[in-house]
Amino acid sequence: MEILLSVNQLSAGYSAQGDTSGAKRSNAPQTTLEILREVSLEIRRGEMVALLGSNGAGKTTLCSVLSGLLSPISGSVFFDSQNITHLSYPSVVAAGLIQVPEGRKIFPNLSVQENLLLGAFKRAKHSRHENLSKVFATFPKLKDRATQLAGSMSGGEQQMLAIGRGMMAEPLLLVLDEPSLGLSPKLVEEMFELILQLKESGLSILLVEQNVGQSLECADRAYVLENGAIRFTGTPDELLASDELRVAYLGI
Predict the structure, then answer these.
(1) Could you tell me which of 47, 103, 190, 202 has the fewest CB atoms within 10 Å of its CB?
(2) What per-residue confidence (pLDDT) applies to 76?
(3) Per-residue pLDDT, 101
(4) Pair type for strands 3-17 and 30-44
(5) Which of 218, 221, 219, 215 is nearest to 250 (CA)?
């Protein structure tokens, strides 16, 4: 199976001002807080890969690098045979790597349909009406609420909208950053059923989650990130066979 995304020895972090001790801020020494340490992973076409880890493990930092929001310290990212390591966010979107961000980031004062159409602003603009029909067919609740203000919907419906907005761009790879965050247990179940439906349609997915148990139920393979480095990798069965992982992350 062809490799769609290849992350190679990626290290990344954030610049911080040093102690200025009364000096002008612009002259302050720059230091870098390293979050990711030589992370390597790959995703094949049509595959769902889970990136698991607790809060603060570095998952969102990795998403930021993949999406072009943060330049890495070292390493490389290849997507669809293209080096996207230092591409801007709009260029990454144009290439077909689409992120559904943590916290949904919908536009609450726009309607559901307006939010969806914005998803095709940079990519797939000419097929936006056809894709809108496809999204409505996949998410009938969004069609029923097409004219409703997005901010008036429930958390689960807003997450559905955020995923639908990502689908409007015809992604080659859909990155789902913490899609179950803040949802009730019932809505979490529904969300994972929806994600499994997207996987079965043939879409390539990177599922970034803290919810280890349910993520392993639907992923083809998984990586576990701990303190900025890959700690475990393998199929769900292989990971569940690890006593250390089951105790540390599943409590069993």
Answers:
(1) 202
(2) 96
(3) 86
(4) antiparallel
(5) 215
The pTM of this model reads 0.89
Residue located via tokens 């789902």 = 176
Q: 100 near 162, Cβ under 8 Å? A: yes
Q: Which tens digit of pLDDT belongs to each residue from 160-213?
A: 999 999 999 999 999 999 888 888 888 888 889 889 999 999 999 999 988 888
Half-sphere exposure of 187 (CA within 13 A, CB side): 13
For residues 12 and 239, give the distance between their C-alpha atoms in angstroms, rounded to a whole number: 26
How long is the chain? 252
Q: Which domains does the chain have, with CATH numbers?
A: 3-18+26-250 (3.40.50.300)
SS (H, E, C) the chain: CCEEEEEEEEEEEEEEECCCCCCCHHHCCEEEEEEEEEEEEEEECCCEEEEECCCCCCHHHHHHHHCCCCCCCEEEEEECCEECCCCCHHHHHHHCEEEECCCCCCCCCCEHHHHHHHCCCCCCHHHHHHHHHHHHHHCHHHHHCCCCEHHHCCHHHHHHHHHHHHHCCCCCEEEEECCCCCCCHHHHHHHHHHHHHHHHCCCEEEEEECCHHHHHHHCCEEEEEECCEEEEEECHHHHHCCHHHHHHHHCC
Cα–Cα dist 147/107, whole Å: 13
34, burial (CB in 10 Å: exposed 0-12, middle 13-18, buried 19+):
middle
Asked if residues 228 and 34 have their Cβ atoms less than 8 Å apart, the reply is yes
